[in-house]
Amino acid sequence: TQLLEQSPQFLSIQEGENLTVYCNSSSVFSSLQWYRQEPGEGPVLLVTVVTGGEVKKLKRLTFQFGDARKDSSLHITAAQPGDTGLYLCAGTGNMLTFGGGTRLMVKP
Amino acid sequence: NAGVTQTPKFQVLKTGQSMTLQCAQDMNHEYMSWYRQDPGMGLRLIHYSVGAGITDQGEVPNGYNVSRSTTEDFPLRLLSAAPSQTSVYFCASSLGGEAGELFFGEGSRLTVL
To answer: Bridge-partner residues for B66, per DSSP?
Structure first.
């Protein structure tokens, strides 16, 4: 079983702060996805990264796939209360494997 | 814009009871899957299907059955519920298999007493 570990598990910050969430594994993944989940809803895809070293930007969110395709990070600049939610990474290998998630709360 | 529809949204069962969680999608996706979500454990794959008539086991299949008689529907059956199956269940579908974008339902919260 391929394991994905996310850190931190919980993060509570003030509006306007920057943050980084990490997704690490000892396994190599062919691609990695990031999802965001709000309470009472299913996860929604934010981005898919495929190439080692790839960097993708979505407005204030920056996603990076590690050179060895074993890890990824999500950086949020100037966080807003609307960024509050559970962030999940998922790696494609033998089957799609999800990390345990990072629960982010952005306080106004 | 129905997408993926799950029913029921909430269910309470007694140990040993059986039930079926329904999942339907209207996007003509071949790939469908069931996950359970427990605190701190992310989403774990129970069963998946790559098309009508084809199903396979995921990471945690024990205690669950599935079938895929049509492209649209992918029900999940609990034959004899156990307290360890208390969880939130999500159905998802994808156009590009498991590596494609997964579209999730809103979830079904199941409590087994």
So the answer is: B76
pLDDT of B57 over the 90 cut: yes
Q: Please give the structure tokens belonging to residue A51.
A: 């190439």
Amino acid at A73: S
Residue-wise pLDDT tens digits, A50-78:
999 999 999 999 999 999 999 999 999 99
The shortest CB-CB distance from B90 to any of A1, A42, A45 is to A42
Beta strands in chain B (DSSP E): 4-7, 10-13, 19-25, 31-37, 43-51, 54-57, 64-66, 76-78, 87-94, 103-104, 108-112
Q: Are A31 and A45 within 8 A, CB to CB?
A: no
The residue in chain A having the minimum alpha-carbon distance to the alpha carbon of residue B9 is A40
Q: Do A88 and B43 count as a contact with CB atoms less than 8 A apart?
A: yes
Asked if A43 lies within 8 A of B104 by C-beta distance, the reply is yes
- Pull the structure tokens for residue B65: 């059955």
Among candidates A15, A1, A32, which has minimal Cα distance to A84? A15
